[in-house]
Design a protein that fits this description.
- About 45% of the residues lie in helices and about 25% in strands.
- By secondary structure, the protein is of the alpha+beta class.
- The protein folds into two domains: about 5-165, Sandwich (Jelly Rolls), CATH 2.60.120; about 175-279, Homeodomain-like (Arc Repressor Mutant, subunit A), CATH 1.10.10.
- Strands 1, 2, 3, 4, 5, 6, 7 and 8 form an eight-stranded antiparallel sheet that branches.
- A hairpin with a 2-residue loop joins strand 4 and strand 5.
- It starts with a strand and ends with a helix.
- About 30% of the residues are buried.
- The model has no long low-confidence stretch (mean pLDDT about 85).
Length: about 280
């Protein structure tokens, strides 16, 4: 985020809340890889952000959700008022709380959908109340502060999930549930499991049935889904590490670096080393 932080609250470097405020347009072209789970609430402002090599424009009152590993950069922005919340898995594990909060694959670790959520006036009032409670708690030195901060963060995330479910079309049919389960599995295993059969077995259905459900939902094929996730990680590593192509290939489950090069080139029309150079 190119904005300057005016007020910063932090708990042991594992949970941070910052108030960002300025009225000058900024351009920040250098992409950065996200290290923590991050939420930006831009109350007043506009701009264009790039997330995982895709461009998104926004104007006032939006929530932006980023997960560790994602590539983020600011193309343009003019922010008058914004808040940022960032936390590590050890402070609040979204996977552990997924059954009760259901934010995994909806707000976070959802690289296949827009990272933005736009609350209405009523939603914003509720989120603001939670935010003010968080700030008050940061300023105290009372017992069980960790638990209180975690509870308020959980409330904020729950409210954001409700906003998305109320204002965006989130289907609850078999295909949608299967797609989410499949996407979460791919996110957890794409480095080691590359075939549709592997994931179909974990889901307890046949590869043919899985493909049929995806076709009915109107999404990309399971095979393309897996391939695109591997390619995304390959792009991230090519840009943000100094690893040789053969080491990136091995990290992504390819024993043959030449095969990985052909795999990447077919998907991007560029050799891995050329992609790194051009970017």
């Amino acid at each position: 985020m190119a904005a300057q932080e005016i007020i910063n609250h932090s708990y042991q470097d594992i949970f941070t809340l910052s108030l960002i405020q300025f009225d000058k347009a900024c351009v920040f072209s250098k992409p950065e890889q996200v290290e923590k789970y991050s939420i930006y609430w831009i109350k007043k402002g506009k701009g264009v952000y790039n997330v995982d090599f895709k461009s998104y424009d926004f104007h006032d009152n939006i929530l932006l959700f980023l997960s560790p590993g994602q590539v983020f950069s600011v193309e343009t922005e003019a922010i008058e008022e914004a808040y940022s919340l960032s936390f590590v898995k050890d402070f609040y594990c979204i996977q552990t709380h997924d059954k009760e909060v259901a934010c995994n694959g909806i707000l976070f670790n959802n690289i296949y959908d827009t990272p933005f959520v736009q609350p209405n006036e009523s939603d914003a009032a509720k989120l603001n109340f939670i935010l003010e409670s968080l700030i008050d708690e940061f300023k105290t030195d009372a017992a069980a502060q960790y638990d209180m901060l975690q509870a308020y963060l959980k409330q904020f995330i729950i409210q954001a999930v409700r906003v998305k479910k109320d204002n965006y079309i989130i289907k609850d049919d078999v295909e949608t549930k299967l797609f989410k389960a499949f996407s979460v599995l791919v996110e957890e295993n794409y480095r080691t499991l590359h075939s549709v059969t592997d994931y179909a077995e974990k889901l307890g259905i046949s590869p043919k049935s899985l493909a049929k459900h995806f076709s009915k939902a109107g999404t990309q094929t399971p095979s393309d889904f897996i391939k695109n996730r591997i390619i995304l990680e390959a792009k991230r590593q090519l840009i943000y590490t100094d690893q040789a192509v053969k080491h990136i290939a091995y990290d992504l489950g390819f024993n043959d670096s030449a095969y990985f090069t052909r795999f990447f080139t077919k998907a991007t029309a560029k050799l891995p080393i050329q992609f790194k150079k051009d970017y």
